[in-house]
Amino acid sequence: MIFGNHDPRLHVVRLPSILAGCLATVVVVVFFALWPVPGQAQSDPEGTGPLVSLNGPVDSTELAPFIEYIIDPDWDMTVSALSNPDPGPAAGDWQALPEAGVDFGYTPARIWLRVAVVNQTAATGDWRFFVHANFFPTLQIWQVGEDGAPVALLDLGRDSPFSARPIADPQPVAPFALAPGQSATLIMAYSSQGSSRTAISIETAESYAALSSVAIAKTYTFYGMFLALLAVTSIALVVLRQVLHAAYAAYVGGLALYIAHIDGTTFQHIWPSHPGLNNMASVVLGTVVMVAAALFAIIYLQTRRHHPRMHRVLIGAIVTILATVSVLWVYDPQLLKQVMVVFLPLNALVIVTAAIVAAWTRFDEVKYFLFAWLAALSPAVLFMARHVFAFESGIIATYDAVRAALVFDAYMMGYASLDQLRRSRERALAESLAMARRNLMLGERLAVLDQSYETLSNQARLREEDVKDAVHDLRQPMHALRLSMRQRFVEGNTNKDSSQFEAALAYMEQLVADRLASTPEGVQADAPALLAEARQAKEPGLHEVLRGVTEMFAPEAKAKGLALTLRLGAADGPVEAYPLMRAMANLVSNAIKYTRKGRVLITLRRSGPGWRVEVHDTGPGLDKSQFSQALERNARLDRDRPEAEGSGLGLAIVQDIVTTQGWTMTHCNRRRTGASILLEVPATSIFTSHRIGT
Description:
Structural class: alpha+beta
Number of domains: 4
Radius of gyration: 44 Å
Number of helices: 18
Largest sheet: 7 strands, mixed
Helix content: 55-70%
Distance between the termini: 62 Å
């Protein structure tokens, strides 16, 4: 199966939860899609015809029916010609806006808009022409009075900094004066390297100030939540130093800057003197958000380990996004922006699919991630619907829905990170407990062996004492035998044979005397005698310990498809069995854990008067700095975290054992692939506890 082996009974609980989440997402999207848009005002007050009667502020839906437009693909029209009361051929053909409003798709043409207004108020003369968009590469607004002369209210070109705006607002605002009873025509020309969609309203100074206050409060509330989330994420990244938190920090930071760019805040405060950067910032930040989200999904869901097919899909999505941006950035930036609007929901859909695949077998581990991306899918779809299909939700502004859903998404992914940290600690604790139990079992077995060795040593000592007593007692009969034989030969007159026999007996007596003198009480036995004694007492020597470790880890290596081999290239010798077994268990366990394919080799070699035990693998290897880092307690290499779970204690435990025993642990730097750990066990440390009578 695609999702691997799992217990079918778990689906009875998990499947309804997954389906319920997906159904909720579909319902939200359909609800937004079918909600009716409020009807456009078509009032014609006081019979003014195309004139908009200004009795106060006029919002975008009320103003749209009175706006006319001209598409200028060649950029050859001028405001003078278009404002001429007796227009010639160059004046163009003004048309009423389509039902979609001010939205002409992704076009390189220059777009001209005009609206005629008359001030019907009694005392208001200060007005604002409010363009509801954060940025256009070129934007000009003129006021044409009753004399027909255009007066520039706003003139922003491709190189205009933010300071060129007459009012410091994230969205362009052109102030104009229109006394009560006066009429005028407002003309706007703009171009877009992305979507041409926008909205226009006419505000009084008071209504504009109220709108600005609400927008600031809403915007900075959103920024405050994201800054708090970024602060917590940054602390977690510094303290825990995990790749997962780095990907999450990039995602949250890119998301905050992306929304700030859409609001226009970045151009106002972060790069106010770089309109060219502001023009393409949506592409850069959108790419960061999508790539960081996909990387977070790969790391959090552990797709490489648990879901290889989805891992390839997510990697393919990242490569596709980066390749598309690289090519279209140079070839057609406007097409790139149009494609990026489609990539946003597609990327979210891929991540949601990966979350559902993971939840199929381990819902409890990935539930926060699944909920986060089910919520993020809705605003991504709404965003695409707005810019591709000119859809506007009637119940909530698109960008407000995007903000709300993305805040929920970011916080849910934060909970997901905390949940994974909790689970990682629980796994580390369980692993430590399992290791402690295994060490306890080994300790109990080795304690039995130590007790057996002590018993055998005592028996050997007693036997040695019995032999010395026997030799000592043998001297008397041998001496009596010599006297007897001498008397016999003397009486028999066999002097020649008597001298030969006496010489032989003297030699035997001298041999026994020498033997008794060479092994006095308390003198240390030499190495060959000790080796013979260890073999006779069946002490677990080097060979037996290494065979035991190999047999213990053979099933684990076989299950992972690795070859585990033992090569004994040196003669057996006595050893402190328990410390060596602990050290080898940790080294072999690490080698199997981080080797994906190939083999693990254990060898025993002679090294001067002592021995060298080596563990080789075909894993990712260790350089000098990585080996030093791995010796620290609770330290793991970043590259090893996605490969296997661990607590970062293995090599630190081995280092403690080696230091206590007086051994030496090194690693080989000359290998191109894989790691080699070497234990130098000197003969002096082996013989220290093996003294006669101890």
